[in-house]
Amino acid sequence: MRILQMSDIYLAADKSENLFDVNVYQVFNNVIDYICKNQKQLNIDALVVTGNISRDGSSEAYQYFYSAMDRLALPYFALAGNQDNKIRMREQALTAKNLHSLDKIAAGKWAFLEINSLVRNEDFGFIDNSELAELEDKIRKNSDKDIAIFLHHHPLPVGTPIVDICNLINGDTLLKLCDDYAVRYIGCGHAHTVSIAKRNNISIAVSPAICFQWQNGTHRAANIKSSGFNIISFSENLHIETYFI
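and the corresponding structure tokens:
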């Protein structure tokens, strides 16, 4: 099974408003068009969006997002990021045609799980004990399957200070839990860069952003105008590909 993971789109109510000199609607449309035109070659079965769909939490942004995603005619799942308004995101999801729960996207010997890393009015992420306990319970219930976990915040530093100061601050706790149960994959976004790391049995992949990337190693808001996403082949030998357009 091949999953396209995208993240950090940053749509807003005003379609003409640029962000760091980037028209995010234009770049998002470019990505959707690219996937549509190359769907056969990409050979994807579904998509997972790991947050920050909107930067202003507007209904208009989510309405546009779901409409654009439905153009792909593929099942997809979307979780919220620190910029998102979860209430409006859920409200507009009622109009989506191909939106699925994450567990319905998984197939074969894989189980896909999500965990909330959001802290109200903060850029950094944190997973509270009740969420961790719920995740552990779900992992136990899927002990006969390979486990993939999706969240917004990156649990390991990526080497770019502007985002590493607001990563998942209890990432070590999550990773220890994943080590204990031999979780195979963690997919996230938030960092506006690509990063793939290996920790014991776990492949930890940060999907590049749709809107733009931060310059590697930057302490300030210095960006690179490119859009990217990951494609993960969930098979016996897990494989991750990164695309920039």
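(Above: one complete record from the training split.) The CA atoms of residues 232 and 240 lie 5 Å apart.
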